[in-house]
Write a structure and sequence with these properties.
A hairpin with an 8-residue loop joins strand 5 (44-46) and strand 6. The chain has helices at 11-14, 143-153, and strands spanning 7-8, 17-23, 26-31, 35-40, 44-46, 55-59, 62-68, 85-91, 94-100, 102-107, 112-114, 127-133, 136-141. With 169 residues, it is mainly beta. Residues 1-14 and 156-169 have low confidence and may be disordered. It has one domain (7-163). The protein starts with 6 loop residues before the first strand and ends in a 16-residue tail after the last helix. It contains 2 helices and 13 strands, in the order E-H-E-E-E-E-E-E-E-E-E-E-E-E-H. It has a 7-stranded mixed sheet.
Length: 169
């Protein structure tokens, strides 16, 4: 992705499918392989005491920290009424939940990738690239970068990410 020309996504680049998470009308694209599951928001227990995580989701024996962000990826301390789903992401840092308004499956054959402009790139940048979906520009996020950002912001006593078994990663 070092050139500036758009590229069609091939199967191995973002896998066969991705998930489009919609948060406050902002679309975020995450590779399907980084998603553990999509759970109803009703299963999330909203409670304080987990750093900047809005709450937790109990899935089997595991507690997943759940974060709520706005369309600019700022962490929120309240639950907007339009949030409907909790996407559980697996990353090198463990598992996290992200609340979103909608989740859609996207076939990567329909995407065109565009590199992140130099002025938007850097160590703190969460975007791996940009994608064009139905004529709209969408941010392609990596679960590892997103969870690292969330845990860096919640180092003041947040619930730890759940470790994922090696066979799940």
């Amino acid at each position: 992705m070092d050139g500036s020309a758009p590229q069609q996504i091939r199967g191995a680049d973002l896998h066969a499918r991705s998930a489009e998470l919609v948060v406050d009308s902002q679309s975020l694209l995450i590779a399907h392989t980084h998603i553990h599951s999509v759970e109803p928001i009703l299963d999330v227990v909203i409670e304080t005491g987990h750093g900047q995580a809005l709450g937790v989701l109990q899935l089997g024996e595991e507690q997943w920290p759940v974060y709520c962000m706005d369309g600019d990826l700022n962490i929120l301390d309240r639950l907007p009424a339009k949030r409907r789903a909790c996407v559980l992401l697996k990353s090198d840092h463990g598992g996290i939940g992200i609340l979103c308004d909608e989740v859609r499956v996207v076939d990567n054959a329909a995407l065109t990738l565009v590199p992140v402009p130099v002025c938007m790139s850097g160590e703190e940048n969460l975007m791996e690239s940009l994608a064009i979906i139905d004529g709209k520009v969408t941010c392609v996020l990596g679960a590892d970068r997103l969870s690292a950002m969330l845990f860096a912001q919640t180092a003041d006593g947040a619930i730890e990410a759940i470790p994922l078994a090696a066979e799940e990663q």
